[in-house]
Recover the amino acids of this structure.
């Protein structure tokens, strides 16, 4: 898609607008109809792991409310819905028999999207690995790569003709680093060497799964989703610049280089020393499979200092309920930099959004901060496109308030509020704004400028 001259000031006609969720965060029904446990079910049972000691057993009860939830999605006027398949729901043990009841759920869900005119954007792995595979080493074990390829092929066989897009993994950095190095996410392991090997197995399983699904004849667009931030040094000092280079190497280049260039960055490999991954001959070629798209999840920039950690409060910018700096221009910077440094496939912003404390007043939620956050990031996306970056779509995180991993239910990212006592859904002002925005002709959609005025 090249931008036509007249679209230089707004989004092209075929730009895809959407909202996103993931299975564990919304479905609930964690042991219904033959579903096996995942590492997140287990992690929630470990005391001290989840801020409010909650779990995913009920979540948004989307497993039972999917039809009315899809009505909500369609009512917003979006083109697409990004969701994930829970691997242990469709294959309880992560190997062997597939679960028909689990597949029926996703078949109905996908057909429900199509019936409502929504394009299904499917993610295969949004972190809920079957526990039975973790018992054999999980993503540290190279055999999990093969299990993932089998699972991916079965999903593609059953749903591949009906979904617009298949993403292999959501945010390998989170699985590797938060799951296996800091251990604040499932499976709660604390070893840098493990994290590095896990990342390698995720990349490898991505490449092998894409190749295998394509060779089965699956025509859906295939790619992967990375969480990326531009890295700024806190000061001009040499030490801070060096710290920023290391952070960029470990957080961005380690993830983008293998996928798009088929190699690991030499400086990071050197820094890793004995923690470098075990790579077998042929792995890097498999990893560098041509992509139909690269998904980018953007929430904030990262500011790095060689001394005391940079204090976000000194930024002078708004800070979300997660403690994350609001920095829309970072999204422009990031996209322009990726475009400069890499042979990029089309990009989708597969997640962008913010948690704020919402208040319900007379059955309304006036979440102006979230509304501005989304609008300003849409405008930042458009800025990057004006500078020549090809972006094909944008998805708000999230449709619903949901289980925000180690933060539990206290952090609300939804543009639709969920009352967890009654499971009632209420469109927040941000959802009403998004709907209004999407009612405009596509080629006159801009977002907002920094003052919150509609452009
Ligand atoms: C991303 C995750 C998503 C959600 C947002 C806030 O890292 O992909 O599930 O938790 O953060």
């Amino acid at each position: 898609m090249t931008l036509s001259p007249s679209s230089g000031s707004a989004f092209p006609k075929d730009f895809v607008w959407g909202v996103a969720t993931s299975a564990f965060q919304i479905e609930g029904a964690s042991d219904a109809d033959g579903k096996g446990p995942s590492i997140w079910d287990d992690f929630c049972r470990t005391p001290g792991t989840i801020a409010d000691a909650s779990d995913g057993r009920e979540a948004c009860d989307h497993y039972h409310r999917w039809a009315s939830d899809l009505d909500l999605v369609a009512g917003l006027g979006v083109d697409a819905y990004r969701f994930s398949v829970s691997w242990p729901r469709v294959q309880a043990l992560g190997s062997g028999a597939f679960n028909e009841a689990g597949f029926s759920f996703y078949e109905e869900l996908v057909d429900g999207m199509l019936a409502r005119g929504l394009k299904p954007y499917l993610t295969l792995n949004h972190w809920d690995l079957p526990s039975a595979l973790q018992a054999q080493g999980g993503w540290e074990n190279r055999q999990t790569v093969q299990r993932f390829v089998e699972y991916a092929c079965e999903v593609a066989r059953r749903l591949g003709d009906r979904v617009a897009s298949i993403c292999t993994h959501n945010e390998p950095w989170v699985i590797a680093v938060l799951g296996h190095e800091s251990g604040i996410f499932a499976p709660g392991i604390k070893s840098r060497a493990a994290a590095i090997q896990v990342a390698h197995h995720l990349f490898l399983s991505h490449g092998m799964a894409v190749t295998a699904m394509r060779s089965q004849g699956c025509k859906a667009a295939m790619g992967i989703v990375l969480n990326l931030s531009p890295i700024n040094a806190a000061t001009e000092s040499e030490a801070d610049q060096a710290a920023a280079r290391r952070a960029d190497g470990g957080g961005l280049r380690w993830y983008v280089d293998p996928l798009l260039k088929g190699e690991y960055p030499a400086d990071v490999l050197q820094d890793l020393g004995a923690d470098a991954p075990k790579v077998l001959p042929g792995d890097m070629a498999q990893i560098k499979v041509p992509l139909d798209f690269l998904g980018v999840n953007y929430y904030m920039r990262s500011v790095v200092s060689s001394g005391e950690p940079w204090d976000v409060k000194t930024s002078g910018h708004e800070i979300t309920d997660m403690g994350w700096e609001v920095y829309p221009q970072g999204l422009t910077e990031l996209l322009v930099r990726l475009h400069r440094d890499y042979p990029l496939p089309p990009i989708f912003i597969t997640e962008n959004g913010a948690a704020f404390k919402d208040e319900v007043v007379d059955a309304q939620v006036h979440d102006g901060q979230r509304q501005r956050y989304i609008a300003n990031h849409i405008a930042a996306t458009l800025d990057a496109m004006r500078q020549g970056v090809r972006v094909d779509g944008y998805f708000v995180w999230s449709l619903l308030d949901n289980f925000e991993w180690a933060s539990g239910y206290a952090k609300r990212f939804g543009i639709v509020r969920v009352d967890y006592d009654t499971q009632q859904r209420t469109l927040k002002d941000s959802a009403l704004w998004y709907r209004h925005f999407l009612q405009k002709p596509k080629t006159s959609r801009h977002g907002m400028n920094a003052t919150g005025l509609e452009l």
Remarks:
- The two ends are 24 Å apart (CA to CA).
- Residues 192-215 form the longest helix (24 residues).
- Confidence is low (pLDDT under 50) at residues 1-7.
